[in-house]
Design a protein that fits this description.
The complex is a heterodimer. Chain A is of the alpha+beta class. Chain A has two domains: about 80 residues, Beta-grasp domain (Ubiquitin-like (UB roll)), CATH 3.10.20.30; about 70 residues, DNA polymerase, domain 1 (Orthogonal Bundle). Chain A is about 35% helix and about 15% strand. In chain A, helix 2 packs across helix 5. Chain A starts with a strand and ends with a helix. The model of chain A has no long low-confidence stretch (mean pLDDT about 95). Chain B folds into three domains: about 45 residues, Uridine Diphospho-n-acetylenolpyruvylglucosamine Reductase, domain 2 (2-Layer Sandwich), CATH 3.30.43.10; about 120 residues, Uridine Diphospho-n-acetylenolpyruvylglucosamine Reductase, domain 3 (2-Layer Sandwich); about 110 residues, 2-Layer Sandwich (Enolase-like, domain 1). In chain B, about 35% of the residues lie in helices and about 25% in strands. The mean pLDDT of chain B is about 95. The chains are: A alpha+beta, B alpha+beta.
Chain lengths: ~160, ~290
């Protein structure tokens, strides 16, 4: 059994026939070849697969592609709309908010979610907002600095 | 991980979902997917049919009127946590929802899916029992209401029949002198409740006139603490009175306790009173306003 879906990713609409059990993350990575979104734990804990669904952060390993039918998805590849870097990407670069980089796409989209719901978060609120994203290089300190830097860039 | 193969039906109304459920015995219902999809991926369930109810408009939204707050079963944890209506009328529920998982999980998980799944390490069941919630269940034969207290029967077991759909949840609106709160010991990695205590307290003339205290996380289903409640009613809810009352929680838990590698049964039973005390203190502090 396949189901027709029409999903917009980074502003471009894709019409595909998918198996109902296909996860959104596999639709993004394997069907469309957008490999910025990672599969980490595959159990909705690590956040490596975080994308924006109609603007809100979700874990794409715990969402079926058929559930995203008609939705607008933003992945790390589409966060900056002009081919440059989004302010959060700039801040992660400037503050060394990554080491191996595997968690970074999810971290940046989780940081985007923090700022969407709370434009001026405290360090504690940033840490709580990143609760669902794991960095195994132990780089949280610089990740929090990077998010705070992005807030300051926005407000300055 | 891939789920086993299933055929997929998308319902656009409660009536259509009811028809699909009747046509496909053994089908599983998909809302936000945050309970069902992990179960499918782990192959703990392999339903032939999945019925997606996630887009049914009649099952969305939060409304208040006639002394009742009605919450659509598709309301997400993020919506519960930020709803002014829920915060004003059922603070324990807003606090419980705000502590589930992480922001991305709260954007997808729904109140209906959460309670229908009835995971004992969840947060919403104990808050809903403490607040006196009623669940609205519908099937092609008609609708019925079940008190939250009677809905949860045991480990991942509820009174929801296979042909029924949980469509909404009703709560009594806040009354004068009533306050509620939720306090949780969260597992540090998973954020599941090791101990979750929900309290609703009513104070009139400086004395506690009603108290509802319900624990979860450490028992197979939400467990009421009647000795804690009884030792509060008629008393001035001071810090000392609350602490003494909370100490009775261990006795109310009985032997139906769950432990794991992180927190043993004995540990949970020994510290449960701390979370009961915190929930009661926060609830009592809100009674004035």
């Amino acid at each position: 059994m396949t189901i027709p879906v029409s999903i917009a990713i980074n502003g471009r609409r894709y019409d595909r026939e998918v198996e109902p059990r296909l996860l959104l993350v596999h639709f993004i990575r394997d069907t469309l070849g957008l490999t910025g979104t990672k599969v980490g734990c595959d159990t909705s804990q690590c956040g490596a697969c975080t994308v924006l669904l109609d603007g809100a952060a979700v874990k794409s390993c715990t969402c079926l592609a058929v559930q995203a039918d008609g939705a607008e998805i933003t992945t790390i590849e589409g966060l900056a709309d002009d081919g440059g870097l989004h302010p959060l990407q700039e801040s992660f670069w400037n503050k060394h908010g990554l080491q191996c980089g595997f968690c970074t796409p999810g971290m940046i989209l989780a940081a985007h979610e923090i700022l969407r719901t709370n434009p001026d978060p405290s360090d504690e609120e940033i840490r709580h907002g990143l609760e669902g994203n794991f960095c195994r290089c132990t780089g949280y300190q610089n990740i929090v600095r990077a998010v705070r830097d992005a807030v300051q860039e926005e407000t300055s | 991980m891939f789920a086993p193969e299933f055929s997929y039906h998308r319902a656009s109304s409660i009536a259509e979902a009811g028809r699909l459920l009747a046509e496909h015995p053994g089908a599983k219902v998909l809302a936000g997917g945050h309970s069902l999809i992990p179960i499918l991926k782990l192959r703990l369930a392999a339903p032939a049919v999945v019925i997606d109810i996630g887009r049914i408009p009649e099952m969305k939204g939060i409304a208040a009127g006639n002394g009742t707050v009605t919450i659509g079963a598709l309301t997400t944890h993020a919506e519960l946590a930020s709803s002014e209506i829920v915060r004003a009328n059922a603070r324990a529920l807003a606090e419980a929802a705000a502590q589930i998982g992480d922001p991305a999980v709260r954007n997808r998980g729904t109140i209906g899916g959460n309670v229908a799944h009835a995971d004992p390490a969840s947060d919403l069941p104990q808050a809903l029992v403490a607040l006196g919630a009623t669940f609205r269940l519908t099937s092609p034969e008609g609708a019925r209401s079940v008190a939250a207290e009677d809905f949860f029967e045991g480990l991942m077991t509820t009174s929801l029949r296979e042909d029924e759909l949980l469509t909404s949840i009703e709560l009594p609106a806040a009354g004068p002198g009533r306050g509620s709160a939720y306090a949780k010991l969260a597992h540090p990695a998973s954020r599941y409740a090791v101990i979750g205590a929900a309290a609703s307290v009513t104070v009139a003339g400086g004395k506690c006139t009603a108290a509802s205290v319900v624990l979860g996380g450490l028992t197979s289903r939400p467990t009421r603490a009647p000795s804690v409640e009884a030792s509060l009613v008629g008393q001035t809810p001071s810090e000392a009175v609350i602490a003494a009352a909370a100490k009775n929680a261990a006795g109310d838990l009985g032997d139906d306790l769950m432990g794991d590698i992180y927190a043993s049964e004995e540990y949970r039973k020994a510290v449960a009173h701390v979370w009961v005390r915190r929930a009661l203190a926060a609830a009592a502090a809100r009674c004035a306003g």
